[in-house]
Amino acid sequence: MATLKQVARWVPSHWGAGHLVLAGFLALLVLAVSPVIKLDLVVNGLFLGAIIGLGAIGLSLVYGILKFAHIGHGDFMTLGAYFALFLLSDLFPRIGLTGAGLGPFTFGYPLLLALPLAMLAMAVVAIALDLGIYRRLRRRGVNPVVLAMASLGVAIALRGVVQIFWGGGTEQYPRVSKLFYRLPMDVRIPPDNLFVGGLTVVLVVALYLFLTRSKMGKAMRATSDNPDLARVSGINTEHILWWTWAIGGALAATAGVLLAVSQAQLVPIMGWRLLIPLFAAVILGGIGNPFGALVGGLIIGVTSEISTQWLNPSYKPAMAFLVMIIMLLFRPRGLFGAKD
Amino acid sequence: MLLEVCDLDAGYGQTQILHGVSIRVDEREIVTIIGPNGSGKSTLLKAITGVVRPTAGRVVFGSDSIAGLSPDRIVRKGISYVPQTENVFPSLTIQENLEMGAFLRRDLGRERLPRIYEMFPDLVSKRGDRASRLSGGQRQMLALARALMLDPTLLLLDEPSAGLAPMMVDGVFDKIAEINQTGVAILIVEQKARRSLQQSHRGYVLATGQTRLEDTGERLLANPEVRRLYLGG
What is the pLDDT of residue A32? Predict the structure, then answer.
């Protein structure tokens, strides 16, 4: 560890998050135009990172307001993805809603309908779980570790529900294969990833506007800052919790559906597998900072994609873990964490 | 009478801190509660605002019994509270802090904002800054300003001078007097109480969770025993 700490001294201590991110991207750019790293991996890593980021934003919001690590978040993604599957391959066909291959994408317009419904469903599920489980524990004044362990139980239970209804096998949304876009420098982008990127941008901008412009969004930030002061200011913090769960659940559902689309498959363990990258992104961005979590997600996505150039892809979560450990060693408050 | 607290018991979990505390605050009055560390001063304020649930006794505000109500309902009735520490939202801007003060009544908040900036002119130029960038004295001013956003009739202040430089302390107490001039009754809890008692109409001495003495500010300041025990001679 001594050598690692020596390396840490090279990083000027007054460097802010902006400097670090900029330095990181410049380094990446240099590497990417050099033959060392395939630009293709960097670009597609960004799309994977966007999905991780969407999940991590919710996880970070929940941590900021409820102050516990919500281990069930990966399985929120899974359940959201499977709920969309239920709509796309079961409910919608019965009412004549079918289709695939909309424009350049592999999926059809029913997905555009299924996605908001899955978001809504997961928002409701998240609030229901809070009322049924987490709120009871909170009222007993349990510590955050107990809440985290309860959420581990929720994670396992949710995956169990998925397996009861869909079994343990691999599923797919209705899709038709499409050609990848070929860009210069050997970059190949699956068209669906444009949807992933576009939707992520839209949702992140919407969330930003909500948190900085709306009364409820500001109250959410206030509650995350100082829950006691929020209460004596007259903010009903129970309502804030509901909003937090609703947003976290909806974003997790989106991440799950996008993951199922971009990987062209659903497995019951898909969200659980992403849990370590999610937490790595949250820690990287500074715990409780939703936009830091997005940047963290992008970094994790790119890093783990690049690693596949030399390592077996099954080591991707290990890469996320490695990035997380390095961050904790050198800058435990994360890129954008508060300085206290 | 504006606020009447009668035989109030309160505490945290199994630990009872207040044992039958009785105080009152009249309209437009400044009342200071002094007492040593751990005497239950802060708990009393928390019990009045609903942060801590009273286990026995009465709290009557105006004509309503408010013991056991949730903080947001008590705020709505016209009691604002400034905690001793962590009394601003650090990652929110000054303006957003003030908006949160008026969370319950956005319309009233819009109306009050210019008036509040008039009272706290130092905050105007910093309205877009995060509260974490303020100095200790400015932060205390912001905390007062936030608490005034709903135009309360009673303001509860927990050690407003704690951790401030002597010069800042004067500024804060001048501002408290100014707020009182606008018709707001103020209940202050202070450990270093000399400055606070000087401008109080009345005061109480609280020790081990019980009311020990009640008198005018002047007479408490002159009382030899109070001087020896609580005012540092």
Answer: 63
Q: How far apart are CA A233 and CA B175, in angstroms?
A: 20
Name residue, tokens 């396992």: A156
Q: Is A66 on the interface with B (CB under 8 A)?
A: no
Run of H or E including A25: helix A17-33
A233 and B CB contact within 8 Å? yes
Q: How high is the ipTM of this complex?
A: 0.91
Record: contact B103-A233, CB cut-off 8 A: yes
Q: CB A221 to CB B146 under 8 A?
A: no
Q: State whether B88 and A229 contact (CB < 8 Å).
A: yes
- Could you tell me if A285 and A57 are in contact, meaning their C-beta atoms sit under 8 angstroms apart? no
Give the confidence band of A226 by pLDDT, cuts at 50, 70, 90. Answer: very high
Question: Chains A and B: how many Cβ contacts under 8 Å?
Answer: 68
3-state secondary structure (DSSP) of residue A207: helix
Torsion from C-alpha of A39, A43, A45, A47, nearest 10 degrees:
-170
Top-tier CATH class for B3-86+152-230: alpha beta
For A157-188, the pLDDT digits (tens) are 999 999 999 998 999 998 888 888 888 878 88
Domain extents in chain B: 3-86+152-230
What chain A holds in terms of domains, given with CATH numbers, is 40-330 (1.10.3470)
Mean pLDDT of A200-227: 94
